[in-house]
Amino acid sequence: MSDIDDDEFLLDEDFPLGDGVADMDTLVICPYCGEEVEIGVDPGGGSDQSYIEDCPVCCSPWMVRLHYSGGTVEVTLAQTEA
Rounded to two decimals, what is the model's pTM? Predict the structure, then answer.
């Protein structure tokens, strides 16, 4: 197996083809103001990600954690520590 084939195999393990569609956005509830908002998510960032993002309604910062599995994303939000 060549290096290119090895790389493709590893990517297939991380991002299985499934139906060929990965979630690119999702609805979440702000842990501060309680508003439901849609956020964009990027499967190209890896199967497990965490980052800070501000609520587009109240501007409070969230700790966003997401996990991709089979093209579906699971997102959890938490208040950041002051």
Answer: 0.69
Measured CA to CA in angstroms, residue 21 lies from 1, 10, 29, 40, 70 at distances of 28, 18, 24, 15, 9
Q: What are phi and psi of 38, to 5 degrees?
A: -100, 130
Q: Is 67:76 a contact under the CB 8 Å cutoff?
A: no
Report how far residue 15's alpha carbon sits from residue 24's, in angstroms, rounded to the nearest whole number: 14
CA distance 75 to 27: 9
pLDDT along the chain (82 residues), means of 10: 52 53 85 95 88 96 92 90 69
Q: Report CA-CA distances (Å) from 66 to 2, 9, 24.
A: 32, 23, 12
Q: Would you kindly state where each structural domain of the chain is located, as residue ranges? A: 3-79
